[in-house]
């Protein structure tokens, strides 16, 4: 842009615009723009830009140049000419054409729970201004996150300015993926020049643990519950109730201390005399809780006492020996 001369000289003024891709202006393209006859669009072939259009509005002379080559610095020299001659000190401007950003870096995905995933990345090496790698990230307009199904169907999940995105289970893009073993996500960066190449990442899905069952319920002087440990589970939750429908219950958890343990058990003692107790259990992992086991029952015939869990578990290693109570009731 350039300010014009005094209004009374506009009719006889000519602007000379020289465009080059080097500061010496060798092989420059020169165009004369008459104020009385401003060209709407002038196009060229086989040069380093496509078209130029100029206009004069409110004493401001403006030229727009299209289809510049990405990453190239352009130089413009603007002179004014009238009946007396050409201005002695032309205005010299330079600017680097925007490029589309490169792919986002260090893209990673992690499971945050059943059907919930966190996608994170760092900014592209080239955010779009020349080929600089340390430009301000403000030049990035947005990042777009996609999910790619096993059938190679691409679904958009969302658009953000941040360097992370949380895909929630309610999102349309990841519906019906809770049984998929491997998930593929794609992240793209966009600026005013356009959308850059995508970056892909995969994550192994964490499925809900399988339903476990009690393998043994021993009803002697103590009640011992045993079940097969699952390598995909890190915690087991046991409910103890005096009613079959578990309207009220006491809950205990056990954490598996070693992946090599194949049999898990817990011993209950000092329960109410003459009461039938009902038991159920379920496995937990990072995706959540699995289904409850089939309900088992056992009568107990000792003196009344407060419900406790024994502090001698053979197959578990916990910070505090014994089981930890979660809650009472539903």
TrEMBL record:
Keywords: Repeat
Annotated protein name in UniProt: Fibronectin type-III domain-containing protein
Organism per entry: Cryptomonas curvata
Repeat keyword on record: yes
Domain Fibronectin type-III: residue ranges: 208-305
Source organism, top-level taxon: Eukaryota
Lineage per the UniProt record: Eukaryota, Cryptophyceae, Cryptomonadales, Cryptomonadaceae, Cryptomonas
């Amino acid at each position: 842009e350039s300010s014009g001369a005094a209004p009374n000289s506009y009719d006889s003024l000519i602007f000379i615009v020289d465009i080059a891709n080097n500061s010496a202006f060798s092989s420059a393209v020169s165009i004369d723009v008459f104020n009385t006859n401003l060209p709407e669009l002038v196009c060229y072939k086989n040069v380093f830009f496509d078209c130029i259009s100029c206009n004069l509005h409110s004493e401001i002379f403006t030229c727009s140049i299209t289809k510049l080559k990405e990453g190239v610095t352009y130089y413009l020299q603007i002179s004014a000419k009238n009946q007396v001659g050409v201005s002695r000190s032309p205005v010299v401007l330079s600017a680097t054409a925007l490029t589309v950003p490169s792919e986002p870096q260090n893209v990673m995905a992690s499971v945050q729970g059943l059907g919930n995933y966190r996608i994170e990345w760092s900014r592209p090496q080239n955010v779009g201004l020349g080929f600089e790698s340390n430009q301000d990230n403000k030049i990035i307009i947005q990042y777009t996150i996609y999910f790619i199904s096993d059938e190679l169907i691409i679904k958009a999940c969302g658009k953000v300015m941040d360097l992370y995105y949380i895909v929630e289970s309610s999102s349309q893009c990841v519906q019906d993926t809770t049984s998929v073993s491997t998930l593929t996500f794609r992240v793209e960066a966009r600026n005013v020049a356009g959308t850059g190449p995508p970056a892909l990442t995969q994550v192994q899905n964490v499925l809900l643990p399988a339903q476990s069952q009690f393998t043994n319920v021993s009803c002697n002087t103590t009640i011992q519950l045993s079940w097969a440990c699952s390598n995909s589970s890190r915690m087991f939750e046991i409910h103890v109730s005096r009613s079959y429908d578990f309207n009220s219950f006491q809950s205990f958890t056990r954490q598996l201390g070693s992946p090599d343990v194949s049999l898990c058990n817990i011993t209950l003692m000092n329960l109410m005399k003459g009461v039938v107790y009902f038991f159920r259990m379920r496995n937990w992992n990072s995706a959540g809780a699995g289904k409850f086991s089939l309900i088992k029952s056992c009568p107990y015939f000792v003196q009344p006492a407060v419900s406790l869990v024994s502090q001698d578990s053979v197959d578990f290693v916990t910070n505090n020996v014994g089981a930890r109570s979660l809650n009472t009731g539903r």
